[in-house]
Structures are given as structure tokens and as C-alpha cells.
Write a structure and sequence with these properties.
Number of helices: 5
Largest sheet: none
Low-confidence stretches: none
Shape: elongated
Radius of gyration: 16 Å
Mean pLDDT: 95
Structural class: mainly alpha
Distance between the termini: 30 Å
Strand content: under 5%
Length: 94
Amino acid sequence: MNLSADHYKSIEELSYRLIPPTLIAINLEVDETDFLEELRTPGTEIRKAFYKGYLKIMIETREAIIQTAKNGSNPAQTELIKFTREINHRLPYE
């Protein structure tokens, strides 16, 4: 699928805003099936753009949770413990 640099930027911005991939494809006016296939294929530009935006918001959210947990928020501390367990579970497999 050949997209312009503006399309890739839009994919990144929309995924940052947690818009589902199908809706991103509709917004870009591209075939949804082709878009999803490219998204699932490692190394494609669509996949890189999507996850770049998605990871940005994930990082920002986790940083906010960490800061809130440090400030004493019990719900944030609970969420931080979940993240820690998730990472500890994944590390042996990577």
C-alpha cells in the first residue's frame, strides 16, 4: 500500500489518540482489509507509524501513573504494580 508522508503522520496522530485501526483506515479512505493486513505485518511503514503513536501515548500515560503513584495515589500504585508484574512476566520470554 503506497501512502504519502501525510498519511503516515495521520496514522501516528490518530493512533496516539487511541483511534481503532479500522476507523483510521476509513478516515484515510483506504481499504480496511489491506490496511489491517499491513498493520499486522512486521516492518511495514503503516505498522511503524501506528505503533509510534500508540507507544507515545502509552509512555505518557505510564509516566503520569508513575508520578501519581509517587505522590501517594493508591489506585496509581495498584496500577503500577500491575505494570511491574506484566513486565516481569514478559522479560523471561523475550
